[in-house]
Amino acid sequence: MSENRELDLLKSKEQRAFSKKQDTWQKYVEAKDRTRLAYYEMVSAWQKRCDARDKLNNEYAKMISFDKNSREIWEEYKRISDYNNSRIELLRLEADREHQEVISCFERASFEYEFGDRAMASVYSRDGHEHKERRNRLNTEVSMLTQEIRDAKNNAKRHVPRANSAAFHDAKIVFDRLKFAHESAQADFKYLKAIRDHLKTKFEHAQVEHARLREELRKKLEEVRADKNSAEEGTIDENTGE
């Protein structure tokens, strides 16, 4: 096989690798957009679920308000629930931000490591672990606050009387429907996120393969040029005798 034939094959491979990389990148970007929209839909569904939960809690509070002792117990639960839920939502948002920082730092560390800058890779890795620790502390606090709500609710259930209330049961139906809608939106988001992450990995592999072929092509071009120059110099020597 001639050197030019080898060069043509390498050029063809490099071009196909470039096209594959670009195609995968486009699919990844589109998957990111779909995932982002799914995230917004999930957040919207979560807010509706929270509103329905608040309505349900209010109707439940009304249902038991005829008994003073029960009302006091319920109000204590509602105080804990309202305060903790407000705190939990803030903590979850902060934990989500920390989690995104974890992902970003580790991705940057991996990128720097792959391209030879181990010092920067170490810095990003350390930052990633710090964000991870903060995320874990936030999630632990969320778990504690959630458990406090459960304990307060269980305590209220043990002490409050049960009474029939059409408004409560209607609110329960609405809440269950919106809870299902949120869980469905959450499942859609996780599914699209998995696709996005898969495409990201494919793009990274395609990027590495294209870089490898590009470097191989560069070396082959230098080799062909060197051989050509040598051949031309040999021809001159034969003609001149020098």
The coarse silhouette is: elongated
Number of helices: 4
Low-confidence region ranges: none
What would the average pLDDT be, to the nearest integer?
Answer: 86
**Which range best describes the helical content: under 10%, 10-25%, 25-40%, 40-55%, 55-70% or over 70%?**
over 70%
For the termini, the CA-CA separation is 32 Å
| Main sheet attributes: strand count, strand direction, barrel closure | none
The H-and-E topology, N to C, reads as HHHH
Percentage of β-strand residues: under 5%
Helices, strands, pairings?
Elements: H1 3-64, H2 68-114, H3 118-159, H4 166-240
Helix pairs in contact: 1-4, 2-3
Verbal overview:
By secondary structure, the protein is mainly α. The chain folds into two domains: 1-66 and 168-231, Orthogonal Bundle (Helix Hairpins), CATH 1.10.287; 67-162. The protein is 93% helix and 0% strand. The chain contains four helices and no strands. The protein has helices at residues 3-64, 68-114, 118-159, 166-240. The relative contact order is 0.15. The mean pLDDT is 86.
